[in-house]
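protien #1 (seq + structre)
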Amino acid sequence: METSSRTSEQPVTPPRRGRMRWWPLGAGGLALLVALVVVVGRSSLLPGLGGLFGEDTRDRSGPALLKSIQDMHRYEGAVGNFQVVVDLEKDAAFLPDAIRGTRTLYVGAGAVSGYVELGGLGEKSVTVNDDRTEASIRLPHATLGPAALDPDHSYAVSKQRGLLDRLGDFFSDNPAGEQAVQRLAVQHITEAARDSGLAARAEQNTTAMLEGLLRSLGFRKVSISYG
């Protein structure tokens, strides 16, 4: 008599696949996106990167508006062109220069004009004899105008910055601004113009201009004085 043995079979359950957590991928993707935005925004740090992302510059400025017109009653007798090398260094009190500190070498080129004011002349400033052969004019001394930097010929030769300053420039809207060295350049050019004899040259040229003008009108003797 055959005895058949039954084997009870248990259903085999396939192993569960572990759920893939999405937040590490999301965080990594977000970090990559932020890094990409920062790099694109600072594409000037890597040469050629701006062209890779198709950067284009367009001037969308509006038209310039005339604010006012001022009549100039002056004669510009001379213009002096100056150049100065500004060496500006800023150090931190208790930190080495490699950590905090800047040094900028800047070449500033600018011009200063010397002019004589003619708008305030009154009746007592001009004297003419009866037969209109002699004229005497008394003018104020020449004045120096403000120094004007020439952006086409002014430039930074070198910039040395500490680590903290570089990080600050990276997140700044105006990295490595040159306002401080530009102000110093204007100051030094103004001081140099005062000692250059530019005002005296402006008075000499103004005298020559007025003498030539009055002699062409028939005056044989012309006297120009300043005071």
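ok now protien #2
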Amino acid sequence: MRKCKKYFQSAYCDIVFVDATYKLNDFRMPLYVIMIEDSLGQSEVAAICLLNSEERPVLQRLMKCFQKHNPDFSGIKVVMADKDIVERDVFKEAFPDASLLICKFHVLRTFNREITTEKMGISSAQRYVALEIIQKLVHSTSEEDYKANLKLIQTTCPRQILNYIETNWHEIRNEWILGLNYFEGSLMNTTNNGIESFN
């Protein structure tokens, strides 16, 4: 822990990546990895923790422990994670001055998992078209571009796809649309793949 603390205090205080994996033990207990990165793209693991659940009190305890051992945590500008609702709320509480970003890989994977023929009651062709436009939506370069791509979904895709986006994604678009302040403080990172490869 001392070595990780030294790295965090000396050079790594801008962006923190958080991810969990479940494939390392027979009980499927989540292993949380918190990784930090400097402006040269060098990363270090700041914390590893095996949790008995992902319930709010457990994650809050993890964040308190991280803050205790890393007193410079207030310098964190960006936290990148996935879209899990409990996680997001806990991170916002722990780092109120930091921007919360959703890993682009997780964004696209979630759309791919949720927009299916079975869940949406759509054809394979409709799904293919929707996912193609959603790729454009994620890579929108401005609010105007985002609105134009959303309009394209409205006019091209079944209504339930637009409903899904408006209900689950529209209000938090600053956290996943690449052209909407996504790169401010993120050191040009769009994914948690560094942690994925570490896992």
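The chain has nine helices and five strands.
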